[in-house]
Amino acid sequence: MGAVVVEAVRTAIGRRNGALSGCHPVDLSAIVLRDVAARSGISPELIDDVIWGCVGQVGEQAHDIARGAVLAAQWPESVPGVTVDRQCGSSQQSLNFAVAGVVAGHYDAVVAGGVESMSRIPIGSTVQVCGDPVSPSIAARYPDGFNQGLGAEMMAAKWGFTRGDVDDYAVGSHERAAAAQDAGVFDSQIVPVTLEDGTVVTADEGVRRDTSTEILARLKPAFTADGVIHAGNASQVSDGAAAMLVVSDDFARKHRLVPLARIHTAVVVGTDPVMMLGGPIPATEKALAKSGLTTADIGAFEVNEAFAPVPMAWRVELGVDERRLNPSGGAIALGHPLGASGARIMTDMIHYMQRNDIRYGLQTMCEGGGQANATIVELVSR
């Protein structure tokens, strides 16, 4: 039994303290849940589960936000929900769990996705109470500790990227995202969010059309005095939500749903937790080996832009043409609402594949603790 994505939607991605900062993350989740069901035309009571990514599971994002989103969406109380934390890859993992459940026959229809309101639940909020998650045993094994920013500096040093290199990449991300916005390529996937004052949010807020390497050169390094990483070549703190409806082939036929893409291969890997961010390289290699495909078969690659050296090192190691990598920009320009990013990226990629008649796409993300997911999807011919 195969698993197919029949709908994929997202909100616009809001800047920190921007347009979406006034939205409770449960209600933001409910907006995409309602839309993904409405677009498909199926009754929510047919959905077997909601698998929802969220990293900051504290305060407004606590108490199994997936279940809260179901109730806030006014869906039947019979629909359950579960929340997943695989750090930045949480909603990509949610998709992979949903697919596995469908393929195993446990589910017929699942919504996978995620949310993060980093304006309302600041990064690091979960470790500000009740002790340190780094136990004495972990600290003894890794005495230098873990820091994603320092990991990005390590990657830049290992691959020999200069400050100019990473800034050039960052500017390119904004340029690609701006071009995509101007061409309207995000319009069909973005669910409008109506604010209390009547404002309707339909566009990603993070794209900086006036940025340049000269502007970025003025920013101070964020993690080491002589480093290359700063706010301008790292992913943006953001708010947003995204959802995908995943169903079995039989369910799609029975309910006359038109598949967008089939999940071909999904893998996850662990890697060095100190450098932390290099996992997309072995994850991609594992996914390609498992799928029997090569980089030449893949028409679109999405590598999450947690920091510029991540996709840059990935491209060096995989030898992929830069035109196939993050073609509509990435998290440096569009933002990185942690628990929603995997689903946001997959939504973008599937719609991009459809517009350009691309058979295979591959998405991969680095994740806290030295992990990475990779997922290959195949466009369904119509």
From TrEMBL:
<dbReference type="GO" id="GO:0016746">
    <property type="term" value="F:acyltransferase activity"/>
</dbReference>
<dbReference type="Pfam" id="PF02803">
    <property type="entry name" value="Thiolase_C"/>
</dbReference>
<dbReference type="Pfam" id="PF00108">
    <property type="entry name" value="Thiolase_N"/>
</dbReference>
<feature type="domain" description="Thiolase C-terminal">
    <location>
        <begin position="259"/>
        <end position="378"/>
    </location>
</feature>
<protein>
    <submittedName>
        <fullName>Thiolase family protein</fullName>
        <ecNumber>2.3.1.-</ecNumber>
    </submittedName>
</protein>
<keyword id="KW-0808">Transferase</keyword>
<comment type="similarity">
    <text>Belongs to the thiolase-like superfamily. Thiolase family.</text>
</comment>
<feature type="domain" description="Thiolase N-terminal">
    <location>
        <begin position="4"/>
        <end position="249"/>
    </location>
</feature>
<keyword id="KW-0012">Acyltransferase</keyword>
<dbReference type="InterPro" id="IPR020617">
    <property type="entry name" value="Thiolase_C"/>
</dbReference>
<dbReference type="InterPro" id="IPR020616">
    <property type="entry name" value="Thiolase_N"/>
</dbReference>
<dbReference type="InterPro" id="IPR016039">
    <property type="entry name" value="Thiolase-like"/>
</dbReference>
<dbReference type="InterPro" id="IPR020613">
    <property type="entry name" value="Thiolase_CS"/>
</dbReference>
<dbReference type="InterPro" id="IPR002155">
    <property type="entry name" value="Thiolase"/>
</dbReference>
